Model the fold of this input.
Amino acid sequence: MRKVLFSLAAAASVLAVSTPAAAQYQHARPVYSYNYQSVRALQGRINQIQRNLQQLARYRVITRAEYNNRQEDARQIERKLRRDFRDGRGLNGREFVRTEQRIDRLERAIARDMRDGRHYRYRW
Done:
Protein backbone atom coordinates (compact mmCIF):
# COMPACT_ATOMS: atom_id res chain seq x y z
CA MET A 1 0.00 0.00 0.00
CA ARG A 2 2.86 2.36 0.86
CA LYS A 3 4.51 1.72 -2.49
CA VAL A 4 1.33 2.70 -4.30
CA LEU A 5 0.91 5.87 -2.23
CA PHE A 6 4.54 6.88 -2.70
CA SER A 7 4.38 6.29 -6.46
CA LEU A 8 1.14 8.30 -6.71
CA ALA A 9 2.63 11.13 -4.66
CA ALA A 10 5.77 11.13 -6.82
CA ALA A 11 3.71 11.21 -10.02
CA ALA A 12 1.55 14.04 -8.70
CA SER A 13 4.59 16.11 -7.70
CA VAL A 14 6.22 15.61 -11.10
CA LEU A 15 3.00 16.67 -12.79
CA ALA A 16 2.62 19.70 -10.53
CA VAL A 17 6.20 20.83 -11.18
CA SER A 18 6.07 20.35 -14.95
CA THR A 19 2.69 22.02 -15.52
CA PRO A 20 3.69 25.67 -14.83
CA ALA A 21 6.66 25.43 -17.20
CA ALA A 22 4.46 24.09 -19.97
CA ALA A 23 1.83 26.72 -19.31
CA GLN A 24 4.39 29.52 -19.43
CA TYR A 25 5.75 28.30 -22.74
CA GLN A 26 2.26 27.99 -24.21
CA HIS A 27 1.22 31.50 -23.19
CA ALA A 28 4.48 33.07 -24.32
CA ARG A 29 3.42 32.97 -27.99
CA PRO A 30 1.25 36.00 -28.74
CA VAL A 31 -1.50 35.86 -31.32
CA TYR A 32 -0.68 38.48 -33.94
CA SER A 33 -3.63 38.19 -36.26
CA TYR A 34 -6.85 36.34 -36.79
CA ASN A 35 -7.05 34.27 -39.90
CA TYR A 36 -9.47 34.22 -42.78
CA GLN A 37 -11.87 31.72 -41.18
CA SER A 38 -12.46 33.86 -38.09
CA VAL A 39 -13.15 36.92 -40.24
CA ARG A 40 -15.53 34.85 -42.35
CA ALA A 41 -17.34 33.81 -39.16
CA LEU A 42 -17.84 37.47 -38.22
CA GLN A 43 -19.00 38.21 -41.76
CA GLY A 44 -21.46 35.32 -41.51
CA ARG A 45 -22.91 36.77 -38.30
CA ILE A 46 -23.36 40.14 -40.00
CA ASN A 47 -25.06 38.50 -42.99
CA GLN A 48 -27.39 36.60 -40.66
CA ILE A 49 -28.29 39.84 -38.89
CA GLN A 50 -29.12 41.49 -42.20
CA ARG A 51 -31.35 38.56 -43.24
CA ASN A 52 -33.11 38.62 -39.87
CA LEU A 53 -33.66 42.37 -40.18
CA GLN A 54 -35.30 41.92 -43.58
CA GLN A 55 -37.60 39.26 -42.19
CA LEU A 56 -38.51 41.35 -39.14
CA ALA A 57 -39.30 44.33 -41.36
CA ARG A 58 -41.35 42.17 -43.72
CA TYR A 59 -43.51 40.92 -40.85
CA ARG A 60 -43.63 44.42 -39.35
CA VAL A 61 -42.12 43.38 -36.05
CA ILE A 62 -39.85 46.43 -36.24
CA THR A 63 -40.62 49.79 -37.77
CA ARG A 64 -39.15 51.04 -41.01
CA ALA A 65 -36.96 53.57 -39.17
CA GLU A 66 -35.61 50.85 -36.86
CA TYR A 67 -34.90 48.66 -39.86
CA ASN A 68 -33.03 51.44 -41.66
CA ASN A 69 -31.00 52.36 -38.57
CA ARG A 70 -30.01 48.78 -37.73
CA GLN A 71 -29.24 47.98 -41.36
CA GLU A 72 -26.93 51.00 -41.54
CA ASP A 73 -25.22 49.87 -38.32
CA ALA A 74 -24.68 46.42 -39.85
CA ARG A 75 -23.24 47.98 -43.01
CA GLN A 76 -20.85 50.13 -40.97
CA ILE A 77 -19.61 47.10 -39.06
CA GLU A 78 -19.19 45.22 -42.34
CA ARG A 79 -17.24 48.07 -43.96
CA LYS A 80 -14.94 48.41 -40.94
CA LEU A 81 -14.33 44.67 -40.87
CA ARG A 82 -13.38 44.65 -44.55
CA ARG A 83 -11.18 47.72 -44.17
CA ASP A 84 -9.36 46.27 -41.15
CA PHE A 85 -8.81 42.89 -42.79
CA ARG A 86 -7.89 44.25 -46.21
CA ASP A 87 -4.63 45.90 -45.13
CA GLY A 88 -2.82 42.59 -45.55
CA ARG A 89 -1.90 41.71 -42.00
CA GLY A 90 -5.30 40.49 -40.85
CA LEU A 91 -7.08 41.51 -37.69
CA ASN A 92 -5.18 41.83 -34.47
CA GLY A 93 -6.79 40.73 -31.23
CA ARG A 94 -8.09 44.17 -30.31
CA GLU A 95 -9.77 44.74 -33.69
CA PHE A 96 -11.33 41.28 -33.59
CA VAL A 97 -12.76 41.78 -30.09
CA ARG A 98 -14.05 45.27 -30.90
CA THR A 99 -15.81 44.00 -34.01
CA GLU A 100 -17.30 41.11 -32.06
CA GLN A 101 -18.52 43.53 -29.37
CA ARG A 102 -20.13 45.79 -31.97
CA ILE A 103 -21.95 42.80 -33.46
CA ASP A 104 -23.15 41.76 -29.99
CA ARG A 105 -24.42 45.29 -29.29
CA LEU A 106 -26.26 45.32 -32.60
CA GLU A 107 -27.90 41.97 -31.85
CA ARG A 108 -29.02 43.24 -28.44
CA ALA A 109 -30.39 46.44 -29.99
CA ILE A 110 -32.42 44.41 -32.48
CA ALA A 111 -33.77 42.23 -29.69
CA ARG A 112 -34.70 45.37 -27.74
CA ASP A 113 -36.48 46.79 -30.79
CA MET A 114 -38.43 43.56 -31.19
CA ARG A 115 -39.81 43.50 -27.65
CA ASP A 116 -40.60 47.19 -27.22
CA GLY A 117 -44.30 46.61 -27.76
CA ARG A 118 -44.87 47.23 -31.48
CA HIS A 119 -45.88 43.88 -32.96
CA TYR A 120 -47.84 44.63 -36.14
CA ARG A 121 -47.60 41.13 -37.50
CA TYR A 122 -49.84 40.12 -40.37
CA ARG A 123 -52.84 38.08 -39.25
CA TRP A 124 -54.30 35.85 -41.91
User: Anything to note?
Assistant: Residues 18 and 24 are 10 Å apart (CA to CA).
